[in-house]
Amino acid sequence: MKPDLQAQPSARKPLFRRVAVIGLGLIGGSLALAAKRSGLVGEILAADRSDEELALGVELGVIDGYGPVSEIVAGADLVVIAVPVRATVAVLQALQPHLAPTAILTDVGSTKGSFVKAVREVFGDLGPRVIPGHPIAGSEKSGVRAARGDLFEDHKVILTPPDNVDEAALEQLARLWTACGATVLTMEVNRHDEVLAATSHLPHLIAFSLVDTLAGEDQNMEIFRYAAGGFRDFTRIAASDPVMWHDIFLSNREAVLRVIDHFTEDLAGLRQAIDAQDGAALLRVFTRARAARNHFSKMLSGQAYVTDMSQKPVRFRLQPGGSINGDIRVPGDKSISHRSIMLGSLAEGVTEVDGFLEGEDSLATLQAFRDMGVTIEGPDDGHVRIHGVGMGGLQAPRGPLYLGNSGTAMRLFSGLLAAQPFDSELTGDDSLSRRPMNRVADPLRAMGAVIDTAEGGRPPLKIRGGRKLSGIHYDMPVASAQVKSCLLLAGLYAEGMTSVHEPAPTRDHTERMLEGFGYHVHRDAATASVIGGGKLTAGHIDVPADISSAAFFLVAASIAEGSDLTLRHVGMNPTRTGVINILKMMGADIEVSNEREIGGEPVADLRVRSAQLSGIDIPEEQVPLAIDEFPVLFIAAACAEGRTVLRGAEELRVKESDRIQVMADGLRAVGVETTVTPDGIIIDGGQAIAGGEVDSHGDHRIAMSFAVASLCATGEIVVNDCANVATSFPGFVELATRTGIRIQSEEGE
């Protein structure tokens, strides 16, 4: 006898009064169990083609009752379809007359296009409360007995809401999944099916096929007897429900066929390489694959299905006071790390790089060149080995090149790719997608490039291949090393001479490194020029410690009483030493020693001790030499005696954030008033830095600057939105703690 469908109401008002689950297998049963444990549902009823499974579900406490579809759907405010994909139409037809207009309808299928098609076939359109879903969780086991209340913990659930979705309904459904332990993401339907075809459907297909192939071999018993753990782990998914996967492959036919075609093409290439004993080709594929798996796992924090929607927010919690002491080396220079990969990839021969910055932005550049066919080994403790392909050796990437948070990478890539024979697309994270790119796109167009941007000249950048570039002379309206470097790199491929005049000195890493790779750069005062058609020759690069990273500790040790800190192997490129020059003008005690040149770049050791700083009018000629370091210099100004005035720094407004305004807002939040001007800021030092909460706007340099400010604060400072610190300074929290900053990093919800 079926249990009574009229269960007693919950003592507290639930998120959903009645949930109807149609299909009580592994996923449907696990959702029912997890939802019951969450306390957010009143009663859970189920329908299934097997009365035995339904009765077992009640016996095991998975569901509260069961009945036919028509009965359990009537009065339900959430209906979950958890049947094989190709049974969806029949289920929808059965429930359609009984579904309340206010009910949310969702599913758990692995293909979303087929579900949307089925809903439209039965209902005529996709209503605002129809929200397709897909939990990325499962097991080779099936049936309600396999149901687990923790199945979705630390797994993702993808929702693919329609454009007209009821936002309240979407939030309600997301809350339930979150309460079941899942991370909820949203995605467009077609994109979901494409991504899942590659990351889920193809591996299952390969596992089924491989096991079937080996089972037909003459020595099948021996093969399976001696199979290693890796084989068992991979082929475990071949024990999955054949009917379910039969439905998935037929329902997602087009996307699956596309990824199968790509895979078989690549597999044929590997066969050819083995047959020809082409070790270089094998190494290229294996290093690219190994690195890609490690890179994307780290960079995207497991976000295999979307970019940054699941990234948990990070905040810094800082206790006031402390002093800075020790002997440290900060990570390698990001600008030089980017360029070492770029030029090493285009060089002839093998380039060895030491001191490479293993931050997310630099790794994104490395991965992008792997995606264009370059074999790159490492990084391994900062060592990278690049097998250059020459100026004409890059291959068309299969998809967009993702550059994370790096404006440097995107602007330099645009110059390198403008003359390639293939189309390319450059994308980045949400922060990078808001940054203007016309400052490089416009002069590249003047050279003959065809570049499309999003609204306002923002990423993504779509670059048309097969264009012949002509050299130009370009007078930069605003000093920018990124723009200069972009045009010089494009000039390597252009006909004739490309020259760039800068209104003020900017970092010259590109020019120095080109010379290091054997490519002549003519420099005449403020103009740098290259003639296209040359070649690059591989060499060795030792990346110095990043002076932009060192800057945080230079200021920290200057403002915190009792500090004495040594920074080793710091890059001292004269176009980058503005932060040292400005701090010394303010009275900082910075001793430079062990000066030397490595790989064309000057380096030195820096000893800094606490000193009373004084406010100054920052000379405008120093501004381009310290453009990235101004956020932390603002902290130095706030701790100094007297007034500090910055002018001529318009470029600060188009960095990862409007660094002038964001720093002013942050200083105000901790009790320091400033005066913002169109091209700078005025800071009166000596104001007390109180505790407070600061929004970094996702800008890593803002976040680290307020970590430094805590040394002179009177109360706790909380800095929000700090996840991007890893993009430029991996290990910052650990190094800051070691030197004396009282910092804790916390993950939010």
Describe the protein.
This protein is of the alpha/beta class and 749 residues long. It folds into 4 domains: 16-187, Rossmann fold (3-Layer(aba) Sandwich), CATH 3.40.50; 194-277, 6-phosphogluconate dehydrogenase C-terminal fold; 315-325 and 544-747, UDP-n-acetylglucosamine1-carboxyvinyl-transferase, Chain (Alpha-beta prism); 335-542, Enolpyruvate transferase domain (UDP-n-acetylglucosamine1-carboxyvinyl-transferase, Chain), CATH 3.65.10.10. Helix content is 38%, strand content 20%. The strands form 8 sheets. Strands 3-2-1-4-5 form a 5-stranded parallel beta sheet. A 4-stranded mixed beta sheet has the order 29-30-9-31. Strands 10-23-25-24 form a 4-stranded mixed beta sheet. The radius of gyration is 30 Å and the shape is globular. The two termini are 45 Å apart. The model is unreliable at 1-11 and 298-310 (pLDDT under 50).
Q: What fraction, in percent, of the residue positions are helical?
A: 25-40%
User: What is the CATH third-level topology name of the largest domain?
Assistant: UDP-n-acetylglucosamine1-carboxyvinyl-transferase, Chain
Helices and strands: which structural class? alpha/beta
Q: Averaging pLDDT over every residue, what do you get?
A: 89
User: What is the 3D shape?
Assistant: globular
Strand portion: 15-25%
Instruction: Give the CA-CA distance, first to last residue.
Output: 45 Å
Main sheet overview: 5 strands, parallel
Number of domains: 4
Q: Give unreliable regions as ranges.
A: 1-11, 298-310
Q: Which superfamily, in CATH terms, is the homologous superfamily of the largest domain?
A: Enolpyruvate transferase domain
